[in-house]
Automatic annotation (TrEMBL):
Enzyme class: transferase
Stretches assigned to the Tetrapyrrole methylase domain: 20-220
Location(s) in or outside the cell: Cytoplasm
Biological source species: Desulfolutivibrio sulfodismutans
Cellular component per GO, a single term: cytoplasm
Task of the protein: Catalyzes the 2'-O-methylation of the ribose of cytidine 1402 (C1402) in 16S rRNA.
PANTHER family tied to this protein: RIBOSOMAL RNA SMALL SUBUNIT METHYLTRANSFERASE I
Family matches, as InterPro entries: 4pyrrol_Mease (IPR000878), 4pyrrol_Methylase_sf (IPR035996), 4pyrrole_Mease_sub1 (IPR014777), 4pyrrole_Mease_sub2 (IPR014776), rRNA_ssu_MeTfrase_I (IPR008189), SAM_MeTrfase_RsmI_CS (IPR018063)
Lineage: Bacteria, Pseudomonadati, Thermodesulfobacteriota, Desulfovibrionia, Desulfovibrionales
Name of the protein in its database record: Ribosomal RNA small subunit methyltransferase I
Length: 290
């Protein structure tokens, strides 16, 4: 057979190995799909989709005809690797898409891209919509540096530990959350991070798009009643240039101590929530206060 390949622009050539395109698809408004992305999807020999039915509906809305679909999701990605590498070895052009936005950002595909690189197959991004950058661009919070946390763990204790890990980085935090877990997650964020500005973004680029700003304490106490897909942006620590007063440090320590932690762990958590205090300084303050 005559092998084909597509160059980084999506144009097909003969007698070479295949290429995998990682294609960003719309979050909601189909007009956000770039002309290059539409061409790559239409010309790909196989489209690897997280949900083939959902991607099929997208193709129908765009007026595109797919040559072939194959599923690739969290539960079958490892098992699909040999099959996909075999298709690329035949010189076929493949396109990887997620349900919406940019693949690999909390979606499957990392193992596949890594395997393609290791096997010597070209991988090209076709950039476009991303819930992460869309939320950052419209939230009105410091956009950089930022840390993307993806979907958070299920256990509240694990969520809190994750936030504590990033409490002192000075970065804005971005993560995805489900509506049923939003209140618990915001409460864990306030417990671990202290008071910060926060924006809950829902249904971006869709009819009921909404950005809900507030402080973590307020949003945790009264979580917004929301539907749809959520992207949460939490700003860096609020710093007025002055260290947190000792009385406020003691108050936060008393709140944290209710969890029954050891003194040094309590001091570490308090230091993550206040300004201008190290864990050692908090520990010394609590010893003196006894």
């Amino acid at each position: 057979m005559v092998c084909k390949r597509a160059d980084a622009g999506g144009h097909v050539h003969a007698d070479a190995t295949g290429r995998l395109f990682v294609v960003a698809t719309p979050l909601g408004d189909v007009a956000d799909l770039s002309p290059r992305a539409a061409r790559v999807l239409a010309e790909a020999d196989v489209v690897l989709a997280e949900d083939t039915r959902r991607t099929g509906l997208l193709f129908k809305r765009l007026g595109l005809a797919a040559k072939g679909f194959s599923s690739l999701h969290d539960h079958n990605e490892q098992a699909r690797l040999d099959q996909v590498l075999g298709l690329l070895a035949q010189g076929l052009t493949l396109a990887l898409v997620s349900d919406a936005g940019t693949p690999l950002l909390s979606d499957p595909g990392y193992r596949l891209v890594r395997a393609c690189r290791e096997a010597g197959h070209a991988v090209s991004p076709v950039p476009g919509p991303s819930a992460v950058t869309a939320a950052l661009s419209a939230a009105g919070l410091p956009p950089y540096p930022f840390t993307f946390l993806g979907f958070l763990p299920r256990k509240t204790s694990d969520i809190r530990r994750l936030f504590e890990k990033h409490a002192q980085t000075g970065a804005t935090l971005v993560f995805f959350e489900r509506k049923t877990r939003l209140g618990k997650t915001l409460a864990a964020a306030f417990s671990a991070l202290g008071e910060r500005e926060c924006v809950v973004a829902r249904e971006m680029t869709k009819t009921f798009e909404e950005f809900l700003p507030g402080r973590l304490s307020d949003l945790a106490a009264a979580p917004p009643e929301v539907l749809g897909e959520l992207t949460v942006v939490v700003g860096p620590a609020m710093d007025d240039g002055q260290p947190t007063p000792a009385d406020e440090v003691r108050r936060v320590a008393a709140e944290v101590a209710r969890e029954g932690l050891r003194p040094k762990e309590t001091a570490r958590r308090v230091a993550a929530r206040v300004r201008g205090w190290s864990a050692a300084q908090v520990y010394d303050l609590l010893l003196v206060s006894k």
